[in-house]
């Protein structure tokens, strides 16, 4: 009887140890994904594309959300106000993907009031001077108004 108990106890300890190692490995991979997203987000449009994809995957880790939100806000504002790509389809797509992440951040409570206000200000500035009459990507006015409404700006 003692051997059976020891065997069961040993198996249970081994199983729990395996769970701990698996959880640690998952967290480590999520951290690596988050860091690779940071690295790629800083590059040109194709690297930005990879960075957005990596951050989208890392988003599933709740502990990274509060760090991802300001990054995607900053990148979205850059594309709205500073990008020289005009109407390049790949960058417009990147902006739309970034905005989806910003919407997710708002829904999950990871978007600060300051970041929300920054996005709204950038959208409203783009609308005020015209989507095609300003630096930054050329974005459809209807998209800007939809985003503005989503964030509670003047629609």
Automatic annotation (TrEMBL):
Q: What is the name attached to this protein's record?
A: Uncharacterized protein
Question: Which UniProt keywords are listed?
Answer: Membrane, Transmembrane, Transmembrane helix
| The organism's place on the tree of life at top rank | Bacteria
Is the keyword Transmembrane helix assigned to this protein? yes
What residue ranges are annotated as transmembrane? Answer: 6-26
């Amino acid at each position: 009887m003692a051997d059976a108990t020891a065997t069961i106890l040993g198996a249970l300890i081994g199983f729990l140890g395996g769970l701990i190692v698996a959880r640690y490995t998952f967290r480590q991979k999520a951290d690596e994904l988050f860091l690779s997203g940071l690295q790629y987000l800083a590059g040109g449009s194709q690297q930005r594309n990879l960075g957005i994809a990596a951050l989208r995957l890392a988003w599933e880790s709740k502990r990274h959300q509060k760090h991802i939100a300001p990054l995607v806000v900053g990148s979205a504002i850059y594309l709205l106000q500073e990008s020289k790509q005009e109407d390049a389809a790949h960058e417009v797509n990147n902006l739309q993907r970034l905005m989806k992440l910003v919407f997710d951040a708002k829904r999950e409570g990871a978007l600060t009031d300051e970041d929300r206000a920054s996005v709204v200000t950038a959208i409203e500035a783009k609308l005020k001077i015209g989507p095609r009459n300003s630096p930054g990507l050329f974005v459809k006015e209807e998209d800007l108004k939809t985003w503005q409404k989503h964030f509670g700006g003047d629609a």
